[in-house]
Amino acid sequence: MSEVLRSYIETYASTTLTDAEFELVMNAFTFKRLRRKQYLLQEGDVCKYYGFILKGAMRQYSVDLKGTEYVIHLGLEESWIGDRESFFMLTPSQYNIDAWEDTDLLLITNEDFQRLLDTIPAVVTMMRVIDQRYYISTQRRLHSSIAYTARERYEELVNTQPELIQRFPQQMIASYLGISPETLSRIRRQSIEK
Amino acid sequence: MSEVLRSYIETYASTTLTDAEFELVMNAFTFKRLRRKQYLLQEGDVCKYYGFILKGAMRQYSVDLKGTEYVIHLGLEESWIGDRESFFMLTPSQYNIDAWEDTDLLLITNEDFQRLLDTIPAVVTMMRVIDQRYYISTQRRLHSSIAYTARERYEELVNTQPELIQRFPQQMIASYLGISPETLSRIRRQSIEK
DNA sequence: CGAAAATTTGACATGACTCAACTGGAGTGG
DNA sequence: CCACTCCAGTTGAGTCATGTCAAATTTTCG
């Protein structure tokens, strides 16, 4: 099971880990199983753990005074989940993170993570590559939200990340796109009609 | 002048550079002066240089078929400018980058940048810290675009980055916020009336 | 099957956009 | 130093995309 993390790191760092290094990595992480709807993080708490998703589906979202939820991240297996701002700055988070499907995670604390960065160069490289990709994908998403209509953003998502649409309910996808569930429903109908 | 870059790196890396290291850094960068409206990057080109702004104001934007401009980044002194996706992936950029004010830059190529990352640990650390901050600020901006109205986004910008509002014309700020210049004008009037 | 949740649909409200006209400087040149 | 132009910003009117609320329908799942 932890082989998944090993090959993930090796892929992103474009190198291999020695068994000793991998041992260190595995000691730094704790396995955790979350059932559907269980929380990894609740608003107001500091994000103590960053998680690597082995299997499952999770979401990160805020809730406003009216109770409306705003989804800012959806995560599937072989990706990371956590509120980075809170995790690294040790500040209270404005986000909630919960499991949408039953999810298996590998969790790591800030301290342990820093230690890995200090001792294993491959982890540093991996982080650089991941940040790079995140930087690029967020910039694209930001550009979409400024330059594209609701329909265009939905169609872009269908083309680039169909797996999200398959795994999460429509209302979450709507929130992720920054539109109402009703609007998304209408957009989909019109897309089909054409 | 290049002392600015040195102290920037030292601040972000929380360490000092040896003179030898700084020598390497300076050899990697080229000084460039851009006049107002000159381009650093044009759509369709690969972003050959990443720039550190010593003095001035720059913007990064795309243009759609109708000629409408969408500003995705505004940069002032002591920050970086460039299309990271194009720069690191060597792909043609969809963005234009030009100088809004006369601007002094230090430019670096991808090759030279990789070399610095390989030879100077402080540069690696600096990048990690910068990426971290960018990650956080972009996530916030994304959250704003999903969860807040045009007015709220404008007010947030006034509170968090008033220097952008002072240095760039209103229509660029509007584009940066993803709203029309007319809408921004009306929002401002109403804010004043209250 | 039956309850609860998700999605769809309809009717209506509204925020934001578009287009066009107007206003008010900031420069320029006679 | 005035007249003129240019351009950003403002304002108005009409439109359109999207949101809201409520009801109907479909799907999910115990």
Write the layout of secondary structure elements.
Two copies of one chain form a homodimer.
Chain A lengths: L2 H11 L5 H10 L1 E5 L4 E3 L7 E7 L1 E7 L5 E8 L3 E2 L2 H6 L6 E4 L3 E7 H10 L1 H27 L2 H11 L1 H6 L2 H8 L3 H13 L1
The structure holds a DNA duplex (30 and 30 nucleotides).
Walkthrough of the structure:
Two copies of one chain form a homodimer. The first copy, chain A, has helices spanning 3-13, 19-28, 84-89, 110-119, 121-147, 150-160, 162-167, 170-177, 181-193, and strands spanning 30-34, 39-41, 49-55, 57-63, 69-76, 80-81, 96-99, 103-109. The termini of chain A are far apart. The first copy, chain A, folds into two domains: 3-147, Jelly Rolls (Sandwich); 148-194. In chain A, 31% of the residues are buried. Chain A contains nine helices and eight strands. A four-stranded antiparallel beta sheet of chain A has the order 1-8-3-6. With 194 residues, chain A is an alpha+beta fold. The longest helix of chain A is centred in the last third of the chain and has 27 residues, at 121-147. Helices cover 53% and strands 22% of the residues of chain A. Chains A and B meet through strand 5, helix 3, helix 5 and helix 8 of A and strand 5, helix 3 and helix 5 of B. Chain B binds a DNA duplex (30 and 30 nucleotides) through helix 9.
